[in-house]
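Table S2 (continued). Query chain:
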Amino acid sequence: MTQMNVETKVIFNGPASERQTGKQRIDDDNVWATEAHEAVRGVLVARTLLPNRACKVPVQLFNVTDRPVAVRGATVLGNLERLHTLSFLCQLHSRRRKHLPTPRNESWTK
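Corresponding output:
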């Protein structure tokens, strides 16, 4: 098995893509990852966190065969998955807790 990091570029589905316009949602960071899967026969794409850019995005490939495999330019290596950062999830949880009655709150004890 051999491994190689390749520089890729992100192709967007449409102009409404937040990543393409560079806009970040207020409630989350733009954190993306590749999905682990077989891109072409014998070549696996590793699940990898990606930098927040569209060009020269490093993706790790594994050749799981015992012979060389060529991956041509313009080959789609897979889809990106949007991830939610832990800080975003903690903020969301904190907001929800503020609306729940607590033992110190009179509405809880009555």
